[in-house]
Amino acid sequence: MISMDSPIETVLGDTGTKAAKITKGLGLRTVGQLVHHLPRRYVRTAELTTVEALQEGELLTVVGQIGQTRRREYADRRTGRTAYRVDTVLHTDGPSLRMSFFAKKPHMADWHERRLPEGRRGIFQGKVGRFNGDWQLTNPQMVLMGTEGEDAAQLSLETLGDLYPIYPLTKGVDTWDLQRAITFALAVLDEVPELLPEAVREQAGLVDAGTALEWVHHPKDYAQVTRALQRLRFDEAIVTQLVLARRRRALARLGARPRAGRSGGLLDAFDARLPFELTGGQREVGAEIDEDLARERPMNRLLQGEVGSGKTLVALRAMLRVVDSGAQAALLAPTEVLAQQHHRSITAMLGDLASAGLLGGAEEATAVELLTGSMTRTQRTGPMSRLASGEAGIVIGTHALLEDKVGFADLGLVVVDEQHRFGVEQRAALTDKAGTPPHVLVMTATPIPRTVAMTVFGDLEISTLTELPAGRAPVQTTVVPVADAPHWVDRVWQRVREEVAAGHQVYVVCPRISGDEREAGQAEAGEPGDTGEERTERPLSAVEEVVEELRAGPLAGLRLTAMHGRLTPDVKDATMRSFAGGEVDVLVSTTVIEVGVDVANATAMVLLDADRFGVSQLHQLRGRVGRGGHPGLCLLVTHAEVGTPARGRLEAVAATSDGFELSRVDLEQRREGDVLGAHQSGYQSSLHTLRVLRDEETILAARAAGVALLESDPDLRGAPALAAAVEALERSVAADFVDRS
Predict the structure, then answer these.
(1) Is there a single domain that holds both residue 626 and residue 702?
(2) How does pLDDT run across 65-124, given as a tens digit for each residue?
(3) 292: helix, coil or strand?
(4) 240 and 294: one domain?
(5) How far is residue 385 from each of residues 160, 329, 352, 375, 378, measured CA to CA in Å?
(6) Which residue numbers delimit the Helicase C-terminal domain (predicted)?
(7) Residue 393 above 90 pLDDT?
C-alpha cells in the first residue's frame, strides 16, 4: 500500500542521484509532500509562450517552435578530429533564441537534426544567455510534441494536456522529472485522505481532496486550477484557524479574577487631571478593555495602532484599573531604552499619583517601579521587595522581569510592548508568576492588515487605534537620491542647521554602529530585492564615523551625541535624558530609537542609507518626529537608483503616511514570514499556498467554519484527518510562530 506517509522513494524508484536531489534540494521526503509540491505556473501547450523580456541568467521554460536547423563541422581543439555542432532557432511569441547541440560522431549530429525539424513544437527549459549579440538558451532540456520514445522526458507526454505544469525546482531536477513522479504517485496512491467533513466542504463549495490534486497537477483549463487552489488554500487556512480557535477556547476555560476597578480610585483621579480629551478611538478601545477586565476569563487582546495614536495612554488606564482592583500590572518592553522611556513618560503622566509612600504623594497613589538587566543587585532589592509585598502597583521592565527571583503579590495584568520581539516562552514566564492567569494586553506600533492579524495573532481579540491625538503634526517625507543628485546632501545638512536654529532638535539614523558592526536586530545590508552590489563598493554609514564627520564638517558648532546599543545602559539613559532635556541638538543613532522614544521638540530625521531599512521600520522611525505640534521632516538619503526595488520602497514611504497601506506594501515585498520580524520564519514553512492578503475571503470563511465546527464537535472526533492535521501543526515548529515566537 502506498499512502501519503510512504517514503518518496516508493514512487521515485531507483533513480539514484535524481531522487537524492529531489529529497535534499526540495525537502520532499514523503509521497504526501511530493503531491503537495504545487506548480508555480502553467504554459499553454497549444500556443507559443509570450516572452516579453529576457534577462541573462534567468531559468526560462517556454513552449516554442523550431525554426531553421543547421549542422556545422569544426576541429576539436583537444583531439584535432572533426566534431559537429547543430544550431537551431527557437521561436516564441516574442524574442527568438539560439540553441546549440554538440556531437563527436556524425550519427549523433544526424539524430539532433532529425528530432529538431523546422516547425516542431516542444517545451524547452534552460538558462538565458547572450552570444555574439543573440539570445541563446544554454544547456536546454526539452519535451518534444508529436514524438514517442526519443527522450526519457517523453514519458510525461502521456498526460500532456493544454496546460503544462511548471514546478519550483532545484539544481539537477527538471520540471518534467517532477511531473512524471507526481503523475505516477497520484496513480498508485491507495486513496487521497479527505481532510474536511462533507458538510464543511459542501457549505464552502469546495471540490474533494483527490479532485483538487488531480486538477492542480493535470488541469484541462485554468478554471480547474482555480478551484483546485481554492480547496488547497482552504485546507491550510482551516487548520491554522482551528489551532488558534482551540487556543482561544482553552484560554477561556482557564478562568481569571475580574479586575473591574472601583469608583473614586486611581483611574478616576488620573482621568480628572488629563489636560486633553481622549480620542474617540481611545475611549472605544478603553471600553473594550474594561469589559474584558471585568470578566472571569483572561483578557487576551492585541492593541495595534499608528505611531503616536496613544496606545501607551490606553495601556496605562488599563493598568490603573487593575491597581484599583487591588492587583498589580507589569509592562514588558523589548529594550532598556524603551523600558526607561516608558518609566519616564508614565511617571510624568501620573505625577504625584506615582509617589505612594513618599512625601507629597497623592492619597490614591501607587508606586511605579523600573526593573532592567543592567541594574545592580542592590538597585534591584527595593523594587523587588515592593513588588513581592504588593506595595508597588506597576512595574516596567525588560527581560529582567522574567527572572525566577522576581515575584508579585497579585499580578493581574501583563502589558507586552512590541510582542513580536518576545518568544512565547518569555511571555509564559511572566504570566506564570501570577496565582491565577493574568489578563494580557499586547501592543504593537506596526500596523497589521486584518488577515495577517487574524492568522498570526488569531488567538487574540484585536483592537485598532487609527485616529491620531490632537497636536500631532504632519511629517513631510522626501527621498534624497545621492546617485542622481549628489549636491542634495549639502542641502540636507543645511536643513538640519535650520531646524536647530529654530530651536528644534534632529535625529540622524545610521544602519551601523561602526565599520561592519550592526545594531542588534537591525536588518542586514541589502533588503529583499536589492542586488547587493553596494555591499562591497561602498561602506554603509556608521554612527561612530558619522558623528565625527558631522562634528568636523557640515554640523560643526552644534551639540552632537552618539546613541547605539553598545553603550552601557547608564550612558544610554543619560544620553536620552540629555536629548529630551534639550541639551543635545543632533542625536546620531542606530534604530535603538525606533519605538517608544518621545521627544516633543524633535522635528526632523535624516536616515542615511535609508534603503537598508524595511518599509515598516522606516514608518516607525519617522514617527519619532512631529510629536510636539511642530511640522516634521523626514529625509531618506539613498544611493539606490530609480527603478530598483529598494528605491521603490522609499518612494512608497514618501508617498503616504498611512501605516496600514505601508504594511501591505511591506507584506507584498517581504512576504508574510518577515512582516513582523525576520525570525518568524515558521510562518513560511506552515503556509505553502495561502497568502494572507490575496486570500482574505478564504481565511474569513475558514475561520467561520472552524469556529462552527468546534462548537458542534470540540474534539473534532467526526473529522479525524482534520484533527490529526491540527495536532501536527500544534506540535510542529511552525506552531511556535503561530504563537508569535
Answers:
(1) no
(2) 888 888 888 888 888 889 988 889 988 888 888 888 888 888 888 888 888 888 888 888
(3) helix
(4) no
(5) 75, 15, 21, 15, 11
(6) 488-673
(7) yes
**Mean pLDDT for all residues in the chain:** 82
Helix (H, G, I), strand (E, B) or coil at 121: strand
Helices assigned H by DSSP within 78-139: 106-115
pLDDT reported for residue 682: 34
Are 329 and 430 contacting, i.e. CB atoms less than 8 angstroms apart? Answer: no
Contact partners, residue 441, CB within 8 Å, separation at least 6: 289, 299, 301, 303, 315, 318, 413, 414, 415, 416
- Compute the distance between CA of residue 182 and CA of residue 11 in angstroms, rounded to an integer: 8
Q: Are residues 637 and 702 in the same domain?
A: no
- Residue 677 has phi, psi (to 5 degrees) of 130, 130
DSSP 203-272: HHT---HHHHHHHHHS-SSHHHHHHHHHHHHHHHHHHHHHHHHHHHHHHHHH--------TTSHHHHHHH
595 pLDDT above the threshold of 70: no
Judge whether 142 lies within some domain: yes
Q: pLDDT tens, 235-250?
A: 999 998 898 888 888 8
- How would residue 526 be classed by pLDDT, with cut points 50, 70 and 90? very low
Asked whether the CA dihedral 358, 360, 361, 367 is positive or negative, the reply is negative
> Which DSSP symbol is given to 713?
-
**Residue 244 in grid coordinates:** 488558534
Residue with cell 504545487: 38
Same domain, 479 and 459: no
Q: What is the pLDDT of residue 392?
A: 93
φ, ψ for residue 464, nearest 5 deg: -130, 130
Closest CA to 366 of 398, 389, 341, 337: 389
- The model's confidence at residue 741, banded by pLDDT at 50, 70 and 90, is very low
**pLDDT of 528:** 36
Beta-carbon contacts of 365 under 8 Å, excluding residues fewer than 6 positions away, are 266, 350, 352, 353, 354, 355, 356, 357
Residue 169 included in any domain: no
What type of residue is 255? G
Q: CA angle 204-207-210, nearest 5°?
A: 140
* pLDDT over 70 (residue 683): no
Domain that holds residue 550: 475-519+538-656
| Residue 226 identity (one-letter amino acid) | T
Q: Based on the number of CB atoms within 10 Å of its own CB, is 681 exposed (0-12), middle (13-18) or buried (19 or more)?
A: middle
User: What does the block give as the cell for 279?
Assistant: 480620542
The pLDDT value given to residue 529: 36
* pLDDT value at residue 523: 43
Please give the single-letter amino acid code of residue 599: V
Residues 240 and 122 reside in one and the same domain = no
- pLDDT score of 150: 45
Q: Give the pLDDT band (50/70/90) at residue 456.
A: low
Q: What is the DSSP letter of 30?
A: B
Same domain for 591 and 649, yes or no, is: yes
CATH number at residue 494: 3.40.50.300
Same domain (yes/no): 312, 362: yes
Is residue 684 predicted with pLDDT exceeding 60?
Answer: no
